[in-house]
Amino acid sequence: MKLKDFRKKMKKNIFSVNEAKIVCFADKPDVLNLQLHLWKKSGDLISLKRGLYMFADAKSEISEVARRLYGPCYFSLEYILNFYSIMPEAVFEYTLVSTKATRRFKTPMGIFTYRQIKKEAFTGFDAETLMADKEKALVDYFYLHSSKLVPCDAFWDELRFEAGATKINFKKALKYAKLFKSKKLNLLLNSFRDYAKSHQNYY
After folding, report:
1. Do 78 and 52 share a structural domain?
2. Phi, psi of 79 (to 5 degrees)
3. CB within 8 A of 170, min separation 6: which ones?
4. Tens of pLDDT along 75-99?
5. Hey, which of 79, 99, 118, 151 would disulfide with 191, CB 3.0 to 4.6 Å?
6. Which H helix or E strand runs over 103?
7. Against a cut of 0.85, is the pTM above it?
8. How many domains does the chain have?
9. What CA–CA distance (Å, rounded) separates 57 from 196?
C-alpha cells in the first residue's frame, strides 16, 4: 500500500499498530510491520513510542500527542505553573498527571513526564486542551512534592514564588485540595495563601 492511500484510510494523524492492522487488514502482520519501518526510515512516520506512530508532517495538537502516549492525562505541575508565570524557572519538558502509574517518554515531540494522582482528584482541566487550571496545577504540585516543601515564607522566597502567589484564587485552590484529603497539602496551601496576602501590595 502506498503511503497516501494508507493515510487516506487511516483518517487520523496519530495511530497505533493495531489501528494500522485494521486499515491494512489484507496485509500480513510482518508485511505491515516492515512497511511501517520503511516509512519511519524514510522520515514519513515518527515513532512516539513502541507501537505508536505519527505522520511526520502532521500538525497534531500537543494535547493529542499527550493523550495518545499515556491517557487519561492532563498538563499540570511545572509546565502549567511556568505557563502562568507562577514558577519562574524554565521548564524543558511536558509535565502531566494521570490516574495511571508514573511514566516518562522521550519522543521527537519532546519529553512527556506523567505523575500519578488518585482518581478522585483527576479534575480541574480543560477537556480539549488538557491544560489544568493554575490552581489545580499548584495543588497537584504541592501534593506530589509535599515531602520537599516547607510551609514558611523563607522557603517560598527561596522558590521565588512571590509574584506568582498573587495570581492564585485560593478559594478555588482549597476546593481542589480537599479532593486529596492530605493534612500536609492543606498546611502548605494555607501557608502559601498567607504568603500571598503579605505580597498583594507589591504587585
Report:
1. no
2. -60, -45
3. 135, 189, 193, 196
4. 999 999 999 989 888 899 999 999 9
5. 151
6. strand 103-107
7. yes
8. 2
9. 45
Tell me the angle at which helices 134-144 and 183-197 cross, rounded to the nearest 10 degrees. 130
Same domain, 166 and 152: yes
Q: Clarify whether residues 32 and 132 are in a common domain.
A: no
Is there a single domain that holds both residue 97 and residue 173? yes
Q: Quick check: 119 and 52 in contact, CB under 8 A?
A: no
Regarding whether 131 and 40 lie in a shared domain, the answer is no
Count Cα atoms within 13 angstroms, Cβ side, for 122: 17
Residues 71 and 118: their CA atoms lie apart, in Å, by: 14
For the stretch 7-24, pLDDT in tens is 999 999 999 999 998 888
| Same domain, yes or no: 102 and 131 | yes
Cell of 105: 517518554
Grid coordinates representing 131? 491544560
Count of C-beta atoms within a 10 Å radius of residue 203: 11
CB 108 within 8 A of CB 91: no
Length, in residues, of the chain: 203
How many Å apart are CA 148 and CA 21, to the nearest integer? Answer: 47
Distance CA 57, CA 180 (A): 41
Domain extent, residue 20, equals 3-60
Longest dimension (CA), the chain: 69
One-letter amino acid for residue 127 of the chain: A
Same domain membership, residue 68 and residue 54: no
